[in-house]
Design a protein that fits this description.
The structure holds 2 protein chains of 2 kinds.
Chain A: H1 2-17, H2 19-56, E1 58-63, H3 69-81, E2 85-91, H4 93-103, E3 121-126, H5 132-137, E4 150-154, H6 157-199, H7 201-209, H8 214-259, H9 272-299
Chain B: E1 2-12, E2 18-28, E3 32-36, H1 43-50, E4 58-63, E5 66-67, H2 76-81, E6 83-87, H3 98-109, H4 113-126, H5 142-154, E7 160-164, H6 172-187, E8 191-196, H7 199-205, E9 208-213, E10 216-221
Classes of the chains: A alpha+beta, B alpha/beta.
Amino acid sequence: MVRTRYFFSETFTSLKRNFFMGFTAITTVAITLFIVGFFAIIVYDIQGIMSSVKSQVELRVYLKDEISEELKEYIEQEIISWEETESVEYVSKDLALERFKKQMEGSDILKEIEGNPLPASFDITLNNPEKIDQVELRFYDKDGNFIEGVDDVIYERKVVKPLFSITAIIGTIAFLIIIALLLAAIVLIFNTIRLSIYARRKEIEVMKLVGATNWFVRIPFLFEGFFEGFAGSIISIILLYFIGNFLLIKGERAIVDIMRIKELAIVGSGNVMLYVYVGVLVLGGLIGILSSVIALRRYVKV
Amino acid sequence: MNMIEFKNISKIYEDNTVALKNINLVIRKGEFLFLVGPSGSGKSTFIKLLIKEIDESNGNIYIAGRNVCNLKSSRIPQLRRNIGCVFQDYKLLPNKTVFENVALTLEVIGKPAYEIKIRVPQVLKLVGLYSKLNSYPYQLSAGEQQRVSIARAFVNRPPILLADEPTGNLDPGTAEGIMKILSRINLIGTTVLMATHDRNIVNSMRRRVVELEEGEIIRDQKRGVYGD
């Protein structure tokens, strides 16, 4: 295609001529998209943490050793019948001891254990962690004592509650920052293209005089905007790959330590990073083209 | 055949300046016409109307028999491809070579590269600048620059060539050279319309002269002179 050759050489020439402005735009897009991608991973990660926390939200109902078989069965049937119950597992005294031993393997504490001091329990996983208070209450009678056969009911109340509100806040803040940064990137590319149009206003005038169509005039500028957005996103992907990954893994370790969460959806696992890269690439191209379109609408009256 | 026809054309600018008043004029195919008159007499308005850079306030313009007044804006490029334009200030692109400047006209139409490679040197030979193919405009004299701009206007062989004060910045000797090129282009059958207030050129050429004054035609003379 003749025109393709022409458009590419025009775009390239223009980029060379406005090198510093173009460089600024590309850098801005790179930094913006890096932060956007970074937050995207964090938000995604938080969801991962949320769901892994959610799946860990369970009530443990310790049973008295002297509980009768019938009562135990009755309580189990009750629990199963609740709509909030995802699943329930009966952990017998023997099983509890076995698990405890496994957990404490190699520790001196095992030698000091005589017999089996651990109680049997029902471990209930809920389908909606927010209903946890409601479910807990069912193990108390009117006077505030545990119902018959139940020794204690525990769950990690302290971790769960604030975690939900923190994740919501971080998510919102991240979203607002992303929007602000995207706007900044658009304004910058818009400005670059505007200057580029201004620098070439004579050329545009001449092109129109010799019968150029509007698209013929516009396309090199669209290419230029697209290139700037695209180049910026490539740089941001490289940054994300090296710096982002490193920071996120460090941060995640910290979260794991603080929150004592057993398992976590690890950053960079699966296709998450790939999705973010593709998203950043598409976003970069779109920002570039969108800014050019706005600039062209305003400055190339045809 | 009528190449250009103005019927009752008036142009009043937004600030209420009357540039042209009820102009009626027929220019036939292959004619060479001088549009003369002092600055502000409406010469430039006349040319801008022809390439649809501005719209008329009243009347109709026919080019090659077609009414261009209600032309859709998307059809304007097509119109301009049939009208070559030469300006007093050349309007060359400083960062492009002579070849590239002239090639622009063909690039815009979407001509293939091999055709551009044939046609551009051809037209540069016509204007006598074949040897300056790879020069930049700043390396050329004023007369040479104007010849490049003529080459650019004519490279796609449009049926009409408009020249707005093409010799305005040139000394008499150089201007004569430009006029020779325009005559040659006219001889091939191109309709040439040249706005000028260069008395000597008009008098030496003895072509049709249309004189404008305050937006009205006050004289239309075959084989005319500049006037008093």
